[in-house]
């Protein structure tokens, strides 16, 4: 990660409300990031989706009305790139119209992120 070739893996984890019938039941999605260690996988940290509608997350992201939804996640050039969809204030529960990208890189043993909105919600 971070331009350096490192054996790494990202395992998805999701928290959803029950019953979870629509996308708006998702409260949080994250990726648990590991690198190869001498005695097996070494946990580095948690990479999570960062775009979203700004006021949705304050003060506690688990209380947000809607959460960002991962579209895809993959390692590219040593970074974890997460493509995501997020709800805007006018979106219905049928699906979010905003799009974003969060890029996570590893510096030493610390994860750092950059978030970009690629399409504003309708």
What does this structure look like?
The protein has one domain (8-119). The protein contains no helices and seven strands. It has strands at 8-16, 26-37, 40-48, 69-76, 79-86, 98-107, 110-119. The strands form two sheets. It has a four-stranded antiparallel beta sheet with strand order 4-5-6-7, with no helix packed on it. A three-stranded antiparallel beta sheet has the order 1-2-3, with no helix packed on it. The protein starts with 7 loop residues before the first strand and ends with a strand. The mean pLDDT is 76.
Give a brief rundown of this model.
This protein has 122 residues and is an all-beta fold.
Report mean pLDDT, rounded to a whole number: 76
Note the beta-strand portion.
over 45%
What overall form do the CA principal axes indicate? globular
| Record field, number of beta strands | 7
Structural class: mainly beta
User: What percent of the residues sit in helical stretches (DSSP H or I)?
Assistant: under 10%
Q: List SSEs in N-to-C order.
A: EEEEEEE
Order of strands, main sheet, comes to: 4-5-6-7
Low-pLDDT residue intervals, each spanning 5 or more residues: none
Taking the alpha carbons of the first and last residues, their distance comes to 34 Å
Largest sheet geometry: 4 strands, antiparallel
Radius of gyration: 15 Å
Total number of helices = 0
Provide the number of structural domains.
1
């Amino acid at each position: 990660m971070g331009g350096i070739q490192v054996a790494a893996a990202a395992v998805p984890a999701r928290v959803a409300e029950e019953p979870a019938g629509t996308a708006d039941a998702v409260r949080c999605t994250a990726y648990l990031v590991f690198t190869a260690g001498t005695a097996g996988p070494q946990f580095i940290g948690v990479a999570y989706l960062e775009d979203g509608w700004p006021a949705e997350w304050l003060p506690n992201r688990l209380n947000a009305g809607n959460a960002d939804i991962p579209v895809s996640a993959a390692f590219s050039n040593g970074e974890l790139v997460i493509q995501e969809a997020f709800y805007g204030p006018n979106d219905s529960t049928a699906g979010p119209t905003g799009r974003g990208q969060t890029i996570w890189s590893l510096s030493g043993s610390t994860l750092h992120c950059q978030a970009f909105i690629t399409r504003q919600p309708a």
